[in-house]
Amino acid sequence: MKLSAAQGFCYRFGTGIKAGADLLALLKSEAGYGSDRQRSAMLALREGAKSGELLSKSMERQKPFFPPLMIAMTRVGEATGRLERTLLSLGELYQHRIQLRRKFLTSIAWPGIQLFLGLMVLSLLIWLLGAITPPTGGKMFDVLGFGLYGTSGVLVLWGYVSLFATLFGGLIWAYFRNLGGVQNVVPILYMIPMIGPAIQTITLSQFCWTLSLALDAGLDPIRSIELALDSTDSDYYRNRAKDAKQAIEAGASLAGALKATDLFPEEFLTRVEISEISGTDAESIDMLATEYDGKAKTAVGTISAIATGLIWLFVAGLLIFLILRMAMNIFGGYAEAIEPI
Questions:
Q1: b/e for 302-329, b at 16 or more Cβ within 10 A?
Q2: pLDDT-derived band of residue 182, with 50, 70 and 90 as boundaries?
Q3: Domains of the chain, with CATH numbers?
Q4: Which of 22, 82, 291, 305 is 20 to 30 A removed from 170 (C-alpha atoms)?
Q5: Domain Type II secretion system protein GspF: where (predicted)?
Q6: What is the reported pTM?
């Protein structure tokens, strides 16, 4: 289920239940939104509700469509009788993630467009070298020195661009799927100046939001921490859930359980400990989540600025390289032309 679809479903469904609308009517209405897969899933939920099945149970039958966090929170909401509040809070969490993603994509959109336009200009030049025939016949002088001419040359260029994009996308995909345990390099990643702390801040913000939601819904601390670690989408974090569980079973506080995972910076643990002293777990973590929400937005701005700068440097470097290469080829041709026979 797409993030935007999950946010919309939680908001509409939570609002409907809060207003006292009939469950079957709400599910029938939801079947009119989204993709064919989403509509089919909503109809399946409606059929399950008709037969008296819990909503969370019906969601589990539709795996892997519904996010695990949504299923778990729905189950908790049904058990505590606060399904509408849980779904509305979950909708806020998804909205938070959407805003962070949108802010990042918006900030790198213009340099990305510049990169695309630069490649299009290069493609046009290569195509013209093959389309124009000089008065003396043969091929146009290869000012780029790449040996690329016409349509075939453009296809070769975009073949290399596609290969680079595929490799880059493949690396990102492999990281999020933790292929070969690549996420174990996260501590090294956090050591990169500016980028590392920013990524860690965004991860901590996501962790806090989920932990606050789970505790507020009435979930026990062990399961709340498990869900919060899972929401980071990183096996590096997920694999430490058992350490937190053992610590809580041994009588540790929430801060003590998080410290046992050896995942969180000292400053974060101190803030959690202070928050615990000042109020209940749910209230304290909610305040911490709000604080880290602001830090996460700043961190996204930092990463966006770095990504924007790198793209601009690449574009500028590419243009300078092409201009120098063209100049060298042209002046080299002049030098050959004036040499005595």
A1: bbbeebbeebeeebeeeeeebeeeeeeb
A2: confident
A3: 3-92 (1.20.81)
A4: 305
A5: 9-127, 207-324
A6: 0.69
